[in-house]
Design goal:
The chain is of the alpha/beta class and 256 residues long. It has one domain (26-196, 243-255): Rossmann fold, CATH 3.40.50. It contains nine helices and eight strands. Helix 2 (30-37) packs across helix 3 and helix 8 (198-218) packs antiparallel against helix 9. The longest helix has 21 residues, at 198-218. Bound molecules: S-adenosyl-L-homocysteine (SAH). Residues 24-26, 28, 53-55, 58-59, 74-77, 80, 103-105, 120-122, 125 line the site of S-adenosyl-L-homocysteine.
Length: 256
């Protein structure tokens, strides 16, 4: 038996402190945010965009270079939202980019008012199908949803990685299944593409190596911090070993 714990067993404040030190809290990159945005039409200075599970806003500030309208970031953690708003101020964007504490299962928007719902590496918290279905009500007819979601690249996988994901996120599935779910939830599938490995290795895991050293030095006697870091390292080793079998995929749909 492995002594690796599920991430669900760690204290949320500790996880939050750890990820606060990073520009991104999930796999992604400015290039990929831009590539996904290239599939979206009709955004102008009157548009209202929502970034759900925005974290500290790494991808939101990139999005804001393309969106001249208003962007509202929503995240459950006040600490992330404070950093998000500081980030927006630093970029001189705080007149139109605002972070709000809130939950993705109870969004603070009026029905049919949002032009684009964006969500990178976060919809798994509500579940892909449920998120697509429930968030649809907030989007205007002709508006878009763009989300990144972990997906299988093949029909069959080695047991070790299959078991890991069945425990972590049983809703993981293949790209054709996820794409069909986009359509069933009431969107025209516009595009989907897999994030390159650099989004995990260079933009997600590599910055964590330094953050882990600092975090361990700050909490030298804390066994749960040690366990959490070991967990992150285990996840990275699994990714390096099995990256041809899974990864993040951007799904873009249009509400018609
Ligand atoms: N989009 C960011 C963060 C991804 S990590 C990025 O790509 O870097 C997932 C984010 O979802 C975290 O910031 C976490 O705090 C947030 N989250 C988790 N559950 C949530 C919920 N119920 N409502 C809103 N945000 C939530």
């Amino acid at each position: 038996m492995s002594d690796i714990q599920s991430i669900h067993e760690f204290d949320l404040n500790m996880i939050c402190e750890y990820f606060s030190a990073l520009t991104r809290q999930g796999p992604g990159s400015p290039e990929i945010t831009n590539r996904a945005f290239d599939f979206i039409d009709g955004i102008n200075s009157d548009s209202h965009v929502a970034d759900i599970g925005c974290g500290t806003g790494g991808q939101t500030m990139v999005l804001a270079q393309r969106v001249s309208g208003k962007i509202t970031g929503i995240d459950l953690f006040p600490r992330f939202i404070d950093l998000f708003n500081a980030n927006a101020r630093q970029h001189g964007l705080n007149d139109r980019v605002t972070g709000c504490v809130g939950s993705m299962d109870n969004l603070p928007f009026d029905p049919g008012k949002i032009d684009l719902i964006w969500s990178e590496g976060a919809i798994y918290n509500i579940g892909f199908e449920r998120g697509l279905r429930e968030w649809r009500q907030y989007i205007k007819i002709g508006g878009y949803i763009a989300v990144s979601e972990v997906s299988w690249f093949t029909d069959k996988r080695p047991d070790e990685i299959e078991d890991f994901w069945m425990e972590a996120y049983p809703e993981i599935n293949t790209i054709p299944v996820k794409l069909a779910q986009v359509q069933t939830a009431g969107y025209m599938p516009v595009a989907c593409f897999a994030l390159p490995e650099s989004c995990w290795l260079d933009h997600f895991y590599s910055p964590q190596a330094e953050a882990q050293k600092i975090f361990l030095a700050k909490h030298p006697k804390d066994a749960s911090v040690k366990g959490f870091i070991e967990n992150q390292r285990h996840e990275q080793r699994l990714y390096e070993k099995y990256k041809k079998f899974y990864g993040y995929v951007f799904y873009i749909g249009k509400k018609i």
